[in-house]
Design goal:
The chain has 288 residues and is mainly α. It has 14 helices and no strands. Helix 1 crosses helix 12 and helix 7 runs antiparallel to helix 9. The chain is globular and about 55 Å long.
């Protein structure tokens, strides 16, 4: 039943998932806490034209994705700060992100179909594959998780203060925009590192959905972070195993498992609230 884990390419996929779990799990909790889920999806998808350029011109896919992802992260961050200074509401920030997302997809499709004629490889670029992981992917995943872990240790108080109560955080002296800019950049870095595993369109399956799932059931921030890292690892390894057993795409299989876990968690939380299952009530997330 588990003989597939003896295959070398499956073992590399498992290592990729385990290395990604720390970075994707930690940054996912900040994405959910700060309301950046749409941005995380957009920055992952916006790497698509960079991937097409890299595929068409023959340079490293990571370099192409990093270039377009960085441009989108900087652009959305600058527009978000401008909107905040002018007192505009968050919907306009979301609208800007949506415009960037649509534009990136349109440019990527045009490049793939009309410029480079690489439409056949679009599916691979959009959905990735854990079965073709190379040494560069493993290094990128490990470095990304180490950077995210270090940034979480150093910047957690500022990210928490701004995430829970932005107005009070400014009153307490948390005024620099640099921590928030670094958070947006790290979201982009994690989105880049998961491309090889789940592709541009399903990056949120590892970054956002596991954190949203565990938040339904966990009370403390530290426990939430640990639970999310573990859930990313479990869903990734289980999805990889199931994809090999059923001959299904790994990224899509992981996304289905992730969505199913979220539905189960939501049903369990609803059951707890209605008293179907006897347990203590689950208040909002608080700092550990």
């Amino acid at each position: 039943m588990f003989e597939v884990f003896e295959l070398p390419f499956v073992q590399r996929g498992v290592w990729e998932v385990l290395l990604l779990a720390v970075g994707a799990g930690l940054i996912g909790t900040w994405v959910v806490l700060r309301g950046l889920a749409f941005y995380a999806h957009a920055v992952g998808t916006a790497t698509f034209p960079g991937l097409v350029l890299a595929d068409g011109l023959g340079f490293a896919a990571t370099l192409g994705a990093a270039g377009t992802g960085l441009l989108v992260a900087l652009g959305v961050g600058a527009l978000g700060r401008q909107a905040a200074r002018s007192g505009r509401d968050a919907e306009r920030h979301d609208a800007t992100t949506a415009l960037v997302l649509c534009g990136a997809l349109a440019i990527g499709v045009l490049l793939a179909s009309d410029v480079f004629g690489s439409a056949a490889s679009v599916e691979t670029l959009l959905f990735g594959s854990l079965l073709v992981i190379d040494d560069g992917d493993l290094v990128l995943a490990g470095v990304t998780s180490a950077v995210v872990l270090l940034a979480t240790v150093l910047l957690e108080p500022r990210w928490l203060a701004t995430g829970f109560d932005p107005a009070s955080a400014r009153a307490l002296g948390v005024r620099s925009a640099l921590p928030d800019v670094l958070l947006l950049a790290l979201v982009g870095l994690v989105a880049l590192s998961v491309l090889s595993a789940v592709g541009a369109l399903l990056a949120t399956a590892l970054i956002v959905v596991p954190a949203a799932t565990t938040r339904l059931l966990v009370r403390r921030v530290r426990a939430w972070q640990v639970a999310t890292v573990l859930l990313v690892a479990v869903e990734g390894v289980a999805g990889l195993w199931l994809s090999v057993e059923t001959n299904a795409p790994p990224g899509a299989t992981i996304a289905v498992l992730s969505g199913g876990a979220f539905v189960l968690a939501a049903l369990l939380r609803a059951g707890l609230r209605r008293g179907v299952v006897r347990a203590r009530p689950l208040p909002e997330v608080a700092r550990a």
